[in-house]
């Protein structure tokens, strides 16, 4: 089984809203087109960057339908389908398979601390709802409150549709651990954008990240240099990216509100705000966001 379609830069797709806060099909399609035209490997739809826990099931379906209508067949599509109950998660999984996505993904259930057997059943039930589609585990313990353990991963690998992990834990050694225990035909994505080069160096075959969407050119360039064995040339780009990310997190607003405003400034594409209870931009935030947007343009000009 070839997993090459998962190797590369896969932005975590932002939720796109109309001015009234409803999900925008038009803006979703326009943003998908923007990213694909920049040369990304694929799109990760409906995850943290997609504000998934604040959207209704039908809104998540609508978003995925819009993305697939625009770019199906042009890039790899991974649909995050987890809800905090099995029934709706399975409905989203079946819907994603019906649209022809390449893979579905899921965090574990949040809030209650479930035993590993319950988490495995939850994931396997979701996978069974999309039996012809690859399944990727999303490990983000700092938000989900549950970490993917080696024992749980080994149990999940008994399911032949489980092909890998989107690893957003901070220790890069977790990537190495999942690759080792995953064996052949296993893909592990670097999650933390600030350590993209480190994650690739320890074995991640690609990356899925929440800030790729405002500066895909920089992550594509780092990946290109890494593949060419020019890690030292990629390091200053990583340093610049990390400075940009620090700037994106320096406002009172949620980072995705900042990201969408950067897309509007640099690409002319309005994506709307963020879904409450996430905090949107205030007038005081705008000078900082404008400065970060310029920093991105200048960095792309310098390195790309």
> Rounded to an integer, what's the Rg over CA atoms?
18 Å
Strand order of the largest sheet: 1-8-7-6-5-4-3-2
Number of domains: 1
Report the oligomer.
single chain
Q: What proportion of the residues form beta strands (DSSP E)?
A: 5-15%
The third-level CATH topology is TIM Barrel
Encode the helix/strand succession as letters.
EHEHEHEHEHHEHEHEHHHH
Fourth CATH level, the homologous superfamily? Aldolase class I
The rounded distance between the terminal residues' Cα atoms is 34 Å
Largest sheet: 8 strands, parallel
Key structural traits:
single chain; 304 residues; TIM Barrel; eight-stranded parallel sheet
Protein model, in words:
The chain is of the alpha/beta class and 304 residues long. The protein has a single domain, classed as Aldolase class I (TIM Barrel). It is built from twelve helices and eight strands. An eight-stranded parallel beta sheet has the order 1-8-7-6-5-4-3-2. Helix 4 links the parallel strand 4 and strand 5.
Q: Mind sketching the topology for me?
A:
Blueprint: E1 9-11, H1 25-37, E2 42-45, H2 57-71, E3 76-80, H3 86-99, E4 103-106, H4 116-129, E5 134-139, H5 141-144, H6 150-156, E6 162-167, H7 173-182, E7 187-190, H8 196-202, E8 206-209, H9 216-227, H10 231-248, H11 255-267, H12 286-303
Parallel strand pairs: 1-8, 2-3, 3-4, 4-5, 5-6, 6-7, 7-8
């Amino acid at each position: 089984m070839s997993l090459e379609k998962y190797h590369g830069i896969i932005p975590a797709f932002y939720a796109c809203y109309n001015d009234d806060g409803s999900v925008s099909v038009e803006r979703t399609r326009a943003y998908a087109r923007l990213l694909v035209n920049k040369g990304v490997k694929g799109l990760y739809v409906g995850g943290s960057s997609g504000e998934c826990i604040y959207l209704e099931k039908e809104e998540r379906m609508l978003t995925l339908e819009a993305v697939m209508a625009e770019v199906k067949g042009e890039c790899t599509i991974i649909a995050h389908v987890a809800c905090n109950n099995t029934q709706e998660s399975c409905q989203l999984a079946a819907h994603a398979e019906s649209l022809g996505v390449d893979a579905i993904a899921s965090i574990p259930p949040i809030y209650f601390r479930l035993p590993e057997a319950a988490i495995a059943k939850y994931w396997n039930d979701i996978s069974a709802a999309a039996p012809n589609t690859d399944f990727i585990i999303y490990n983000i313990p700092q938000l989900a409150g549950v970490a993917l353990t080696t024992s749980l991963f080994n149990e999940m690998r008994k399911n032949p549709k489980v092909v890998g992990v989107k690893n957003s834990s901070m220790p890069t050694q977790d990537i190495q651990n999942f690759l080792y225990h995953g064996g052949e035909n296993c893909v592990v994505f670097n999650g933390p954008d600030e350590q993209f080069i480190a994650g690739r160096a320890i074995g991640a075959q690609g990356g899925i990240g929440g800030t790729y969407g405002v500066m895909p050119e920089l992550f594509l360039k780092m990946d290109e240099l890494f593949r060419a064995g020019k890690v030292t040339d990629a390091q200053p780009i990583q340093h610049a990216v990390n400075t940009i990310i620090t700037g994106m997190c320096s406002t009172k607003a949620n980072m995705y509100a900042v990201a969408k405003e950067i897309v509007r400034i640099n690409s002319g594409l309005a994506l709307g705000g963020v879904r409450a209870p996430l905090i949107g931009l205030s007038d005081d935030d705008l000078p900082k966001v404008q400065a970060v947007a310029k920093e991105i343009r200048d960095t792309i000009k310098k390195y790309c």
